[in-house]
Amino acid sequence: MAIMRETTAALQSVLPQTELSTLLKLSRDQKESQLIELMHIVTGIRLYNKKIGKGGAGIDNLAGIFLELLPALQEKLEASIAEGQRICDRITALMEKDSMSGNTHQMDPGDYEAFAEAAANCRQKEAFLHILGKAIEDCEKAGRAHLDKYYAELEAITRSVTPPRKSVATKEIYPKFQELARAWTGVQEETRLLSIYESTMSGVNSHGRVVADEYTEEKLANMLSGVEVLSDAQRLEKSGASEERIEEPLSDQVRIYRPEQIVNFPEMTTEYRGFCALSLSNGNGMLLRGNPQLGIVSYREKYYAFSSATAARAFAFAPLKHTSVITTLCQMRPYLIPLLEMHSTFSSMTAQKLGLAGAAPKTRCDAGVQTEVHAPTRCFVKSYEWNEWILRAQASKLANIRQTVTKSTQTTSSGFRRDADTQVYLPKDNSTQTRRDKATAVPKPVVYMAGLRGSAKNTAKPAKVDLTPDIVSHRIADDMEPKNH
Predict the structure, then answer these.
(1) DSSP H helices in 15-61
(2) pLDDT at 358 over 90
(3) pTM metric for this prediction
């Protein structure tokens, strides 16, 4: 609650509630810019309140955390590098003793290859830890720069609000609060980055424990009786103390560059990450640091360093042979490619080609299959044939056709005769209808009243006379009528 109350009070002092409507009318980009600016101002106010002891609840002491984590991480890094170097120096001494014994190797080839793999593992761990150490140094520089800026901005704000000044213009104080918040955020990011580096180092050390558990001090002590163990620094010091230098001319194929001849000599990049090329070739992957102060051998626009002048002279007599042996060795042991920085040599080679000495490497990945709802109709070529002998027979037929002549004759039975069509007009339909009209008429009744006028003698009475013709008489009359044909 204290954090919320303090944040609310600081925010309302910068953005009153009456101005919220103005903020809501802005575009999306303008709103984001205004909110980020408000966040920095409020954070700067709370940081200043923590400094004067009037607020800042929930704010961690990032300066103390950063300065406490940094030396502990650097000490842990140095211990990890020293442990890997100690194991690598002992293994390298054993390999060097066996390689110098000539053709009578005292070590089993399988054990020698296991030692070479363990030494390469230690060298890889050492190289990665050196890269991590460089990143920690950059993080330290950036974090200390943010801390200096943080304290400088706090001091500037304190001077601005110190009496007798009763008020400070917002245009003057708000930018300082923003810079204070940015400096504190930078320290926070660098502290979080140091935590990530610490977890990464723990993971690397856990993988490196495999070699440390396999080649313990007790196990190597019995094998190192009478063997001088030298570190890389001691080897460089020993080779540098001797007055022997790589002299010219070694051969017509190589050139020698000395430190006094080139201004930027320390910046020259040598092949195989600075390891001795002859030790890699003759020692079957033995990793010995080269000493550039003896001179750098140039062959085909590439630069090589060697552990001694004798090794440089041996390499100069047959440089192509030694570089080819190292390339073949990297094909057999792909883990040497990143260690020796030979990515450009194997950039065009596939993983299957790199695994010529053993089984092809197996890769795993997550895959998903989705059934199509409306799958497109596939076109099947029925004339496709995969059988080699059928294809040869078809090729022979085509070759014979080129040497033959095709002749054709058309007969009545030929399948290619001319088509003929005939159109037939069907007969017309004819019909005759005979009909005789016949009708029957009902006679019309006719009644005559006689004697209605009377008579001269007045003796006649009226009488009803039916004059309706008979039907039979009508039929007889019709039959008697002449017919016209």
Answers:
(1) 20-24, 28-52
(2) no
(3) 0.64
